[in-house]
């Protein structure tokens, strides 16, 4: 039986799975790694640690009793987007990867919009300059770390660094490349205009493939080191949001995913290119040929819950603290959480935005705060959903670590006033990467053919109208908070 490996290089951990040709997961393995925060607004990770941990997961998969390594027909890669890995001419990382949630590039974003012009930037890349994207990070290194900049030979996205270590090839694919701000998203290739305007050498960037295309073959030293057969094809794969959408069967226009990972994302697949541009929504290529997507991204979704659990209930499971929150009424008895713990991207592109608990009283216990966090993240996602009014959203599927919990899924359905479905796999991006591997190296005709065979929707949460009434009133209050508090957030920044 043919087997496919899917790897998702997430922000909190790398998750790798083996899927057989019927879509069943035969083995999985994951390893966590730290998120480095060397200065306020800076978020980094060490690419060598990514590679070490990824290798450990692959080795564990191969040693699994249900996996015969000689049956592995292909590998697909997925990972956190926008992170920027700078390599020297020997392929060695020159600096920690600067991540998607890093906010140090505000000045560089202003520079890009001035230099290229907002209209021309949007026309060419489909996007405004946002601090998480890769191009401003390249300019930041030029300005602030000239000793590194002069040694740069290649710039890669996170999962593409793993590809380089697996195959020795410098390659990327359209969905992740969209998040660099250097891709002509409509034409699905690098933009010479943007590269020239920003003075970024084309040779630094890898070649761009479609997501299911084979980009290289595994190197022979890996056979000895971790038992991975030499010459196994590695396909393009996808940025974690596009791969997560594929892994949830979202491969045609009008179907959406909501991802509750470290970040929180509303993703709507589209068969057409963009007609109306919405300021902080992203317009990127989908990991499916001739498809695109719009996406709203909040920076701290399940990360808000993780933060709260770590400081208030570290010994307890997510299930326990969410169960406790389920006993609190919708609306958290007047407590409101603003989820801007690491600044925000959609709908407020503001590195200095901050978290906030509004309405605290002596009556509020831990469970109220937990519930307010689940609801606040839901309101933040609703901001993005409301902006996607140029497409009819026929269905929403949830993915990401936070979606394992049915209480949170129900809260989302109640806030959005839309049914929320789960699918038969909860490995989102890793599963999507395996689907793309099956198309590129397993003889399947199309992504849709595989997802139709492998993915079904399961449980569906219908909105509870009494809860929705409460949430629609509180959402109006939520929407006012950012502008009321913006000045305070910026003032407080001086004391960090
Ligand atoms: N059982 C659970 N219930 C609710 N949230 C969970 C649960 N397990 C993990 N999480 C949340 O999911 C997040 C990790 O999600 P994941 O999609 O793996 O993120 P990433 O891809 O960013 O590494 C953690 O921050 C945690 O808050
Ligand atoms: O910045 C984005 C998408 O634009 C994030 O979604 C990252 O891709 C990280 O995702 P997770 O680690 O939360 O899955």
From TrEMBL:
Query: What Enzyme Commission number(s) appear in the record?
Result: 2.7.1.17
Indicate the residues that form the catalytic site: 240 (proton acceptor)
Q: Which residues form the Carbohydrate kinase FGGY N-terminal domain?
A: 4-247
Binding residues for substrate? 81-82
Q: Identify the InterPro entries for this entry.
A: ATPase_NBD (IPR043129), Carb_kinase_FGGY (IPR000577), Carb_kinase_FGGY_CS (IPR018483), FGGY_C (IPR018485), FGGY_Carb_Kinase (IPR050406), FGGY_N (IPR018484), Xylulokinase (IPR006000)
PROSITE patterns linked to this entry = FGGY_KINASES_1, FGGY_KINASES_2
ATP-binding as a keyword of this entry, yes or no, is yes
Q: Which reaction does it catalyse?
A: D-xylulose + ATP = D-xylulose 5-phosphate + ADP + H(+)
The record places the site described as Important for activity at 8
**Which GO molecular-function terms appear in the entry?**
D-xylulokinase activity
Which part of the chain is the Carbohydrate kinase FGGY C-terminal domain? Answer: 257-440
Keywords annotated in UniProt: ATP-binding, Carbohydrate metabolism, Kinase, Nucleotide-binding, Transferase, Xylose metabolism
Function of this protein?
Catalyzes the phosphorylation of D-xylulose to D-xylulose 5-phosphate.
NCBIfam families referenced in this protein's UniProt entry, alphabetically: XylB
Check the record and name the HAMAP family matching this protein: XylB
Q: Which family does it belong to?
A: Belongs to the FGGY kinase family.
The protein, known as: Xylulose kinase
Source organism per UniProt = Fodinisporobacter ferrooxydans
Source taxonomy? Bacteria, Bacillati, Bacillota, Bacilli, Bacillales
Task: Name the gene for this chain.
Answer: xylB
């Amino acid at each position: 039986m043919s087997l496919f490996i899917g790897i998702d290089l997430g922000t909190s951990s790398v998750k790798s799975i083996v899927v057989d040709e019927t879509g069943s997961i035969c083995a999985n393995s994951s390893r966590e790694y730290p998120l480095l925060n060397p200065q306020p607004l800076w978020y980094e990770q060490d690419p060598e640690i990514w590679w070490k941990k990824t290798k450990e997961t692959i080795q564990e998969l191969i040693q699994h009793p249900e996996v015969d390594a000689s049956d592995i027909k292909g590998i697909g890669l997925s990972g956190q987007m926008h992170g920027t890995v700078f390599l020297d001419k020997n392929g060695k990382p020159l600096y920690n990867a600067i991540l998607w949630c890093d906010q140090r590039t505000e000045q560089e974003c202003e520079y890009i919009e001035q230099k290229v012009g907002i209209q021309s930037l949007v026309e060419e890349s489909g996007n405004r300059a946002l601090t998480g994207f890769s191009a401003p990070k390249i300019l930041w290194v030029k300005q602030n770390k000239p000793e590194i900049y002069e040694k740069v030979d290649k710039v890669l996205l996170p999962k593409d660094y793993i590809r380089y270590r697996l195959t020795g090839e410098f390659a990327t694919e359209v969905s992740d490349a969209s998040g660099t701000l250097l891709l002509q998203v409509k034409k699905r290739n690098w933009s010479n205009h943007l590269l020239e305007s920003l003075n970024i050498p084309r040779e630094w960037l890898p070649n761009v493939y479609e997501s299911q295309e084979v980009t290289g073959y595994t190197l022979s030293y890996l056979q000895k080191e971790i038992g991975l057969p030499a010459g196994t094809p590695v396909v393009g794969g996808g940025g974690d949001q596009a791969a997560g959408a594929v892994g949830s069967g979202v491969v045609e226009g009008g179907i959406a995913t909501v991802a509750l990972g470290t970040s929180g994302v509303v993703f709507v697949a589209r068969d057409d290119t963009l007609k109306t541009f919405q300021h902080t929504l992203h317009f990127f290529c989908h990991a499916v040929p001739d498809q695109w997507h719009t996406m709203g991204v909040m920076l701290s979704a399940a990360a808000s819950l993780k933060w709260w659990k770590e400081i208030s209930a570290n010994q307890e499971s997510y299930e326990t603290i969410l169960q406790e929150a389920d006993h609190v009424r919708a609306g958290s008895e007047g407590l409101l959480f603003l989820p801007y713990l690491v600044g925000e991207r959609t709908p407020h592109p503001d590195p200095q935005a901050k978290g906030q608990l509004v309405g605290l009283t002596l009556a509020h216990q831990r469970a109220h705060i937990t519930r307010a966090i689940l609801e606040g993240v839901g309101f933040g996602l609703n901001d993005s959903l409301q902006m996607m009014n140029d497409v009819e959203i026929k269905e929403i599927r949830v993915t990401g670590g936070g979606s394992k919990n049915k209480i949170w899924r129900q809260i989302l359905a109640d806030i959005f006033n839309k049914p929320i479905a789960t699918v038969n796999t909860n490995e989102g991006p890793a599963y999507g990467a395996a689907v793309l591997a099956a198309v590129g190296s397993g003889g399947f005709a199309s992504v849709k053919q595989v997802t139709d065979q492998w993915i079904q929707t399961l449980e569906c949460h219908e909105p509870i109208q009494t809860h929705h009434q409460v949430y629609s009133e509180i959402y109006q209050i939520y929407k006012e908070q950012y502008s009321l508090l913006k000045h305070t957030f910026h003032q407080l920044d001086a004391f960090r």
